[in-house]
Design brief:
The structure holds two protein chains of two kinds.
Chain A (H helix, E strand, L loop, with lengths): L6 H21 L7 H7 L11 H26 L13 H18 L3 H10 L3 H23 L5
Helix pairs in contact in A: 2-3, 5-6
Chain B lengths: L1 H20 L5 H8 L5 H23 L18 H17 L3 H9 L5 H18 L2
Helix pairs in contact in B: 1-5, 5-6
Classes of the chains: A mainly alpha, B mainly alpha.
């Protein structure tokens, strides 16, 4: 059930929690990820949905946060990563199709694995709890279906 | 203003490092959870939510306001059909590709360049949602 052990997951999770906590304690911001797509689109689209006040107010720090996440992972790759830099062997169409549904679904749901999963559960939100149960259950069913259909990698 | 960005950036560094350390920048590891072969992702999610829960629920009892902000706000989301339908659509995409928004950013950092295709696609998905479904 845990072929890679508990350690990387537990330590990784705690580090993520410390990052989110640090931002919250100092700035009061709930640092989450998926709104980044919508708020960044607000620079290019005049559609009222993208121009909503909360998006305009948060769009600059959300870019800063995303850059931090990318660089944090980069630091891991050049320090502790056993494989250094690496790439996925998943077929391109899976990344493309999956990415589209992830972008659409997280914005429809107003949260992703970090928004509902970390900040939402931590805020003891019922809506987020149901969202998390839903995306984990549907994610499992989908991944198992693809595996059963023999879609590899 | 600048210092706020520095704080968010530093927290982002930890967030990205933790995701990568916990294997989330590897789509194969995320999929191994969704195929029920390695339940570690639950430990990572539970660990990060637990640490964050302690902070969000206890710190506002001790501190009146954030060091650089005006108030500790609750993150509010109302439960409706869109919350669940959106989560289900996200789940399908997650199960197909092993990508989610945060882990996709971390993937870019570890040089997992094919995931840029997924990120571009997430922007498109977010755009279509905002353009036609609001």
């Amino acid at each position: 059930m845990l072929p890679l052990g508990v350690f990387p997951y537990l330590i990784g999770g705690v580090i993520i929690g410390i990052g989110v906590s640090f931002i919250y304690v100092v700035t009061g911001i709930h640092a989450t990820q998926s709104s980044f797509f919508s708020t960044t689109i607000s620079f290019f689209s005049k559609i009222p949905y993208f121009q909503q006040k909360s998006y305009l107010e948060s769009r600059s720090w959300r870019i800063t946060f995303a850059v931090g996440v990318i660089l944090g992972a980069f630091i891991y790759a050049i320090t502790l990563s056993p494989d250094g830099f690496f790439t996925t062997s998943l077929q391109w169409w899976r990344l493309l199709l999956g990415g589209f549904l992830v972008g659409f679904g997280t914005r429809l749901s107003q949260g992703c694995t970090s928004g509902h999963g970390i900040s939402g559960l931590a805020s003891l939100s019922n809506a987020s709890l149901y969202a998390v149960i839903t995306f984990i259950a549907v994610g499992i069913l989908t991944a198992l279906a693809f595996e059963t259909l023999g879609v590899v990698p | 203003m600048r210092i706020k960005h520095l704080i968010v950036f530093t927290g982002g560094l930890l967030f990205g490092f933790g995701l990568a350390f916990g294997g989330m920048s590897k789509q194969e590891i995320v999929l191994s959870f969704l195929q029920l072969k390695d339940l570690g992702l639950l430990i990572l999610l539970g660990g990060s939510a637990f640490v964050t829960a302690l902070t969000i629920n206890l710190v506002p009892k001790v501190l009146k306001k954030p060091f650089l902000g005006e108030e500790f706000k609750k993150r509010r989301r109302t439960l409706n059909k869109r919350t669940i339908l959106g989560a289900a659509i996200f789940g399908v995409g997650w199960g197909i590709s092993g990508q989610c928004p945060g882990s996709a950013m971390a993937s870019i950092g570890v040089g997992n360049i094919p995931v840029l295709l997924g990120v571009a696609s997430m922007f498109l998905g977010a755009y279509i949602m905002g353009r036609f479904f609001t």
